[in-house]
Amino acid sequence: MEHPPRVEDMRQWLAQENPLGLFNDQAGITLADIDPSPYSGHFDFLVESSGRQLVVRMKGSEWGTGEGLVDEYHTLCRIAQHKVAPAVYYLTTQFFGEPMILEEYIVGTLFPQFAHTAQSIAAPAVGRFIATINQIPFAIKDFPFRQLFTSYMKSAHRLYQRIAFIADCKETKSCGRELLSFLPGIKSILNEYDILLQRVLEKTGPSFVFPSAHAGHLVVCKDEFRFFNWEKVSYGDPSYTLAVFLLSLEKQHPDFEGFKARMIDAYLALNPIPEFKELLEARMVERRVANAVYQIYMSAKKGITYPSWQRIFAWMQQWTGK
After folding, report:
1. How far is CA 217 from CA 85, 109, 220, 288, in A?
2. Residue at 1 is within a domain
3. What is the pLDDT of residue 64?
């Protein structure tokens, strides 16, 4: 949906439909927007009624249709026993014509809000937590897996498509031509990364992957952790989840390398993946490239040139040896 419904309209809907039997007193229902960011891709409201606090979660327009929210509901149901995510209680596909779920409201603090010293102390525990997620057993038929991380070639194809789009736009044509010059080097390096990934997967099999493992999605509650935003899950590369988490803190943490080392050591103590450090470094590089191209691509879609493209090109030139 383009915009969330009015609070008064949501209160009325909840009172009429009365999901979970908690909303029979419309006057006693309160709603507050707890995710006002225009870039989150979702609308999340804290609803209080009958002594319970829940989250009303809807899909925003920026990241596609509401189908992903239905996927999120089924994923949360499947992983409930592992206690790595909010509990989910209710799904409707007819909340003002769109899907909506009611899920647990987790009381806690987002990981980036802690001081860097506290983050460093917590690093081993977070490393073990991510290892636990990667060890979630799964059958392919039981989850709404869509984008898979079993090969770098699929990621490379998306990267090439975005670069071609940038080069085809009038406003970003010169920028796109520069990017196209990096493609041979990118293809060669990603091919090497894929050989490493296939060698590891041959030994270990694919891992459960949570692609949205940004630090800003991690809630610290008492002595436990919970990730939210489970719309997408996947399987394949065991390093992917940790790579996403680390990259979200790379530019913020003053002792990032020490922080990363503590997380890796704790991760491997629980989930001893062979060649994991090499796999993680490869994935972090691939994600940096993909994120940089994505920023330029989104600017191109708006008909403007990304302001920091020259800095990105200098880094890519060094990485590819061009």
Report:
1. 10, 10, 10, 19
2. no
3. 58
